[in-house]
């Protein structure tokens, strides 16, 4: 198992499990705009032309890894430093809530909840990339977690979102543990990305058994 692939998770996901979702510009592999606006370069060497081409399809997008070259036609909106964390062992977590598989029935509810708290990171077809699960209260979806970047041996836990009214109910712990264990059962290693400033979330992940592997930079671009 080559853990070095996690240094460039988007590029390797689009070279392996998610190759059918790839917008391929050679040195740059980036998800098709309707699924997920994230990309990665194969090496440190890159030209601004690749980003220019993609910006014609998608006005806002994210690049993981080293800072890429970009032209004056693009605006760097933010640099986000994330903790990349991995979990190697099954998580022992009791579930007090029913965890519902959302794919095939609740995609609209999933999209609306994630967009409410993390606009731009989630698209209508992001749910095609993996399994998504949620917790309902009074027939309303209030917490979700799912799978995003996927390689042959690794799968990302993503879209960890809980409605503010339910933040102290432990729903995120239950969902992250459930999704991570599902990934482990498939013979893959679960990993995730979290803003290094999000101390509360990092603490939750550490208590579940995730540990810091690496710092990953995310570059948020927008077409001028």
Give a structural overview:
The protein is an alpha+beta fold. It has 2 domains: 3-82, no CATH class; 84-215, 3-Layer(aba) Sandwich (Aminopeptidase). It is built from 5 helices and 11 strands; from the N terminus they run H-E-E-E-H-E-E-E-H-E-E-E-H-E-H-E. Strands 1-2-3-4-11-5-10-9-8-7-6 form an 11-stranded mixed beta sheet, sandwiched between helices. Strand 9, helix 4 (171-185) and strand 10 form a beta-alpha-beta unit. The protein is globular. The chain starts with 8 loop residues before the first helix and ends with a strand. The mean pLDDT is 95.
Work out the helicity level: 10-25%
CATH architecture tag of the largest domain: 3-Layer(aba) Sandwich
Proportion of beta-strand residues: 25-35%
Report on the biggest sheet.
11 strands, mixed
Q: What is the count of structural domains? A: 2
- Assembly status: single chain
What is the C-level CATH assignment of the largest domain? Alpha Beta
Order of strands, main sheet, comes to: 1-2-3-4-11-5-10-9-8-7-6
Output the helix-strand order: HEEEHEEEHEEEHEHE
Distance between the termini: 41 Å
Q: Flag low-confidence runs.
A: none
Number of strands: 11
How would the global form be characterised?
globular
Count of DSSP-assigned helices: 5
CATH topology of the largest domain: Aminopeptidase
Class based on secondary structure composition and strand pairing? alpha+beta
What is the CA-based Rg, rounded? Answer: 17 Å
